[in-house]
Design goal:
Blueprint lengths: L18 H18 L3 E2 L5 E3 H5 L6 H4 L4 E3 L7 E4 L4 H11 L5 E10 L11 E10 L4 H18 L4 E7 L6 H14 L6 H9 L1 H4 L8 H5 L10 H16 L5 E2 L11 E9 L8 E7 L3 H4 L7 E7 H11 L9 E7 L4 H12 L3 E4 L6 H11 L3 E5 L1 H6 L1 E6 L6 E5 L3 H9 L1
Parallel strand pairs: 1-5, 7-8, 12-13, 12-14
Antiparallel strand pairs: 2-4, 3-4, 5-6, 6-11, 7-9, 9-10, 10-11, 14-15, 15-16
Helix pairs in contact: 5-10
The protein binds histidyl-adenosine monophosphate.
Histidyl-adenosine monophosphate binds next to strand 6, strand 10, strand 11 and helix 12.
Length: 421
């Protein structure tokens, strides 16, 4: 095949059928479960004022290196960015519309980060997620984590590990930050050059380094959990008790800091053990009790998560679960009289809620049957001259061995519906 003139931009992909159908099914399943738990869908813009995303953390990779930002054509031009995630947009929307809390929303859609593409890491990727704004009840944390946990299970995934941590709040954070800064500064000479720079901006981010030369220093660093105030500790213990109550297993992960700066208290990540790559985080979330206020809204606590659709599907491939859904086409209409009869038959079937497709171009019986087989439809409805004269079709079972039978055209939809049920 000749090299195409244009290709999808680096780090982006075309999702073609039938894979696109599998994604749609995943999103539909998430939507259903979120709605059952009282979340309503929020649809927010794909781009926002850059300032909305700056709140994700001035020292995070997402803000410093990965933003798809641009100026619009206004006078003066506005500095905008494609969304790298949706939590900030949801908080911006909350601050703008002031809905009655607690406000529970779910979302799905593409996110954009200018990353170095690799397996499971893209510049355009899809997330599904939820956010609950306006309550700091630890039960809301448990509810959120449980929704994520059960969603993976509903897809058939079995090899998911829940990693859990508490990142404290503004009352306990300063003492911890001081201890961490002192420890890392004392050991700065042993850190990678990149982490030495990060240390100046935000010591917490050093803990997120995946560089081998930082591992030893990070593994002996002071832990946030040792600095939690009584109130924050109690919050964390209630979250843990709730997970125990629901029988949801978790691993305490005291060095889990996440890639965004807005987190307070409960933080978590879901890792797919079947993915042998560095990109095995299939979802993550936590509390962000200061973000709405940061964006100009009233002081409002929040908790939520986002799950990476692309990586979940990779994990499903690795575990051999949640395979491509069956074709919606149930009857392939093969018309060897020229094609005009297929028009009416397809329409009748579709109007009865039965998926129907056909060939074009008046092709031979053999050629049309080949397409019928490829379509995945369980039945072919064959129309020849004899069928037309008698007002009938020949219905052929393409999968089983029940052979074929003549059926009055008027009974076709009802007959197929019965066979399908
Ligand atoms: P995040 O950890 O940055 O959190 O992203 C959540 C998930 O999105 C990741 O676990 C991963 O599965 C997927 N993901 C992230 N970047 C990429 C990429 N470049 N390619 C493919 N998949 C990717 C957030 O986005 C927060 N907004 C989550 C949250 C919601 N926290 C509170 N509420």
């Amino acid at each position: 095949m000749a090299e195409p003139t244009f290709k999808a931009p680096k780090g982006t992909r075309d999702i073609l059928p039938p894979e696109s159908g599998r994604r749609r099914a995943l999103i539909d399943a998430f939507a259903q479960q979120a709605e059952l738990a009282g979340f309503g869908e929020i649809m927010s813009p794909i781009f926002e004022d850059l300032g909305v995303f700056k709140r994700l953390g001035e020292s995070t990779d997402v803000v410093t290196k990965e933003m798809f930002d641009f100026f619009d054509k206004g006078d003066p031009p506005q500095h905008l960015a494609l969304r790298p995630e949706l939590t900030a947009s949801v908080c911006r929307a909350f601050a703008e519309h002031r809905p009655t809390p607690p406000w529970k929303v779910w979302y799905e859609g593409p996110q954009f980060r200018y990353e170095q593409p690799q397996a499971g890491r893209y510049r355009q990727f899809a997330q599904v997620g939820i956010e609950t704004l306006g309550t700091d009840d630890p039960q809301a944390d448990v509810d959120a984590i449980a929704l994520g946990w059960h969603f993976y299970a509903s897809l058939g995934l079995r090899e998911i590990t829940l990693l859990l941590n508490s990142l404290g709040d503004p009352t306990c954070r300063p003492a911890y930050m001081e201890a961490l800064r002192t420890y890392l500064s004392d050991n700065a000479a042993s850190l990678s050059p990149q982490s030495q720079v990060t240390l100046e901006r935000n010591p917490l981010r050093v803990l997120d380094s995946k560089r081998a030369e930082d591992a030893a220093i990070i593994s002996a660093a002071p832990l946030m959990v040792d600095f939690l105030t009584d109130e924050t500790r109690e919050h964390f213990e209630t979250v843990r008790a709730g997970l125990d109550q629901l029988g949801i297993p978790y691993e305490l992960s005291p060095r889990l800091v996440r890639g965004l700066d807005y987190y307070t208290r409960t933080t978590f990540e879901f890792a797919a053990d079947a993915l042998a790559t560095a990109q095995n985080a299939v979802g993550g979330g936590g509390r962000y009790d200061g973000l709405v206020e940061d964006l100009g809204g009233p002081a409002t606590p929040g908790i939520g998560f986002a799950l990476g659709v692309d990586r979940i599907l990779l994990a499903c491939d690795a575990e051999g679960v949640f395979t491509t859904p069956e074709s919606a086409v149930k009857v392939f209409v093969v018309d060897v009289t020229g094609g005009s009869h297929a028009l009416g038959v397809c329409t009748t079937l579709r109007n009865a809620g039965i998926g129907a497709d056909r060939s074009y171009g008046g092709r031979s019986m053999k050629a049309q049957m080949k397409v019928a087989d490829r379509s995945g439809a369980p039945f072919a409805a064959i129309i020849g001259e004899d069928e037309v004269v008698n007002g009938e079709v020949t219905l052929r079972d393409l999968r089983g061995d029940t052979g074929q039978q003549r059926i009055a055209l008027a009974d076709l939809a009802e007959h197929v519906a019965r066979l399908l049920s």
